[in-house]
Design goal:
about 250 residues; alpha+beta; Creatine Amidinohydrolase; four-stranded antiparallel β-sheet; 4 helices
Length: about 250
């Protein structure tokens, strides 16, 4: 069942989303060669808690980190550890914050130092595809219009959309209905309604779309070892279209 949020709930979720956005902004200052993903995790954990929020991912189904930190061919769910970032790497950081019982959720892929042109294009196209999808988010439209817009943009640039992992509803649970694939035909699925809160998160591979999970039972990597990117915003459906909840509103 898709849960539409009340005005009061949306206000709390704006605050949760803002905390997530500000945490991303804080981590950006520290993403440089030499820092470890565990150090980034500690910075994020401390920052989120300073806003009287709780990291959504900490302890989620046994996950040990406060963020997901996925480097290069790691798509999602990378466990923070002793890996030090190097010049030319990319890192996808997924952040969730639980504020007063409601979650915000956003992921972004960042360059470390100077990256090559192909990888830069991958990041550019994946971010663009997110906003192509968001442009379809408005009351009365079908959910799969978002999915189709993302796939169309990604494949026009000869990259691949991952099929196994999808977007989702967000609220008092980190993952709610509906599931939102980032591929498929338009005109399918439920009609969007005001008050729906959705996490749209295209995951895109530079090579083929196939992925696998490592022996830690968390980290997902591209099967062919190619780079991959992940961009995500939590949005609310409003009368005029959509509102990004995970966009920084204060410094």
């Amino acid at each position: 069942m898709i849960i539409c949020k009340t005005a009061r709930e949306l206000e709390i979720m704006r605050q949760a989303g803002n905390i997530v956005a500000l945490t991303h902004r804080e981590l950006q200052k520290h993403i440089k060669p030499g820092i470890t993903t565990k150090e980034l995790d500690h910075i994020a954990d401390t920052f989120i808690r300073s806003y009287d929020a709780i990291p959504s991912f900490k302890g989620y189904n046994g996950f040990t980190g406060s963020i997901c930190a996925s480097v290069n061919d790691q798509l999602v769910h990378g466990i923070p550890g002793d890996r030090a970032l190097k010049d030319g790497d990319i890192i996808s950081i997924d952040i969730g914050a639980d504020f007063q019982g409601y979650h915000g959720d956003s992921a972004w892929t960042y360059p470390v130092g100077t990256i090559d042109d192909k990888t830069s294009k991958l990041l550019e196209v994946t971010e663009e595809s997110l906003y192509k999808g968001l442009a379809e988010a408005k009351p009365g439209e079908r959910l799969s219009n978002i999915s189709h817009a993302i796939q169309k943009h990604v494949e026009a640039h000869n990259f691949s959309v991952v099929r196994e992992y999808v977007g989702h509803g967000v609220g008092q649970s980190l993952h709610e209905d509906p599931q939102i694939p980032h591929f498929g035909p338009p005109g399918k699925g439920p009609r969007l309604k005001e008050g729906m809160v959705l996490a749209i998160e295209p995951m895109v591979n530079a090579g083929k779309r196939h992925v696998r999970t490592l022996r830690d039972n968390w980290t997902v990597v591209t099967t062919d070892g190619e780079m991959c990117a992940h961009f995500e915003h939590t949005i609310a459906i409003v009368d005029t279209g959509y509102e990004i909840l995970t966009k920084a509103k204060e410094s």
